[in-house]
């Protein structure tokens, strides 16, 4: 919760920590998985930094944290890695750094939240038989061959500025993880 008692979603908490970390070290890199909002790109631009996108797993974040030493690597689901301390998630260090950043910048958590650009990300799962998962991925790659896409983990199709859809096959279950972002929550959900 912030200083006004408002609960923070994992995504907002991650964006807050990213903003504070980049305020402390402008021009640094920030590592987040490919399924996270483009708000991180806007936050990085604000502080002359850049974003490194990873696959959607903690091991990929730890690998980036070990090799390229971003100021912060975070999964958007509560795991924060501070590579200058150690390249693994550390909840206690996240609390310490949050308090440190707030003190250094002489700001309140609610003020940082208010300064964030608005963002809406929606996630869902879609069942798909094991036999059809490969065909679905091939069709997506064919259908969006001429579009702007990222294939870090699944297929991420950029539709309009600030709008994208990520279709990612689950490695262990017969399903796809679908994540979308839009400036409007209603559009992200459709």
Coarse structural class: alpha+beta
Q: Enumerate the spans where pLDDT stays under 50 for 5 or more consecutive residues.
A: none
Number of strands: 9
- The general outline is globular
Q: Report how far apart the termini are.
A: 29 Å
Helix content: 25-40%
Whole-number mean pLDDT: 94
| Number of helical segments with 4 or more residues | 7
Please state the CA-atom Rg, rounded to the nearest Å.
Answer: 17 Å
In percent, how much strand structure appears in the residues? 15-25%
Which strand order do you get reading across the main beta sheet? 5-9-8-7-6
Reading the helices and strands in chain order gives HEHEHEEHHEHEEEEH
Report on the architecture of this protein.
By secondary structure, the chain is of the alpha+beta class. Helix content is 38%, strand content 24%. It contains 7 helices and 9 strands. The protein has helices spanning 10-24, 39-46, 58-67, 91-104, 109-115, 130-143, 185-189; strands spanning 29-33, 50-54, 72-74, 80-81, 120-127, 149-150, 155-160, 163-169, 175-182. Strands 5-9-8-7-6 form a 5-stranded antiparallel β-sheet. A 4-stranded mixed β-sheet has the order 2-1-3-4, sandwiched between helices. Helix 1 (10-24) runs parallel beside helix 2 (39-46) and helix 1 (10-24) crosses helix 4 (91-104). The longest helix is centred in the first third of the chain and has 15 residues, at 10-24. The radius of gyration is 17 Å and the shape is globular. The two termini are 29 Å apart. The mean pLDDT is 94.
